[in-house]
């Protein structure tokens, strides 16, 4: 899978840890972004994380599994 997603996360988030494991198991490339480092990201994602976003700006919020992420990625491929 060539595309790399942005993975909005933060330290100590058990749902984010689960989501990261799902992404890794599915072989999905991602770049983690810790929302704690940016006030705007905290406002946008504070109660929504974990969230993955693609280069087109589409977002997939929790809950998801590997199959759901792959389906979401294929929707506009």
Describe the protein:
This protein is α+β, with helices and mostly antiparallel strands and about 80 residues long. The protein has a single domain, classed as Glutaredoxin (3-Layer(aba) Sandwich). It has helices at about 15-25, 40-45, 65-75; strands spanning about 5-10, 30-35, 50-55, 60. Strands 2-1-3-4 form a four-stranded mixed beta sheet, covered by helices on one side. The termini are close together.
Q: What's this entry about, in short?
A:
This protein has 77 residues and is of the alpha+beta class.
Main features:
77 residues, alpha+beta, Glutaredoxin, 4 strands
Topology:
Elements: E1 4-9, H1 14-25, E2 29-34, H2 39-45, E3 51-53, E4 59-61, H3 66-74
Parallel strand pairs: 1-2
Antiparallel strand pairs: 1-3, 3-4
Low-confidence region ranges: none
* Overall average residue pLDDT: 93
CATH C-level: Alpha Beta
Distance N terminus to C terminus? 11 Å
CATH superfamily: Glutaredoxin
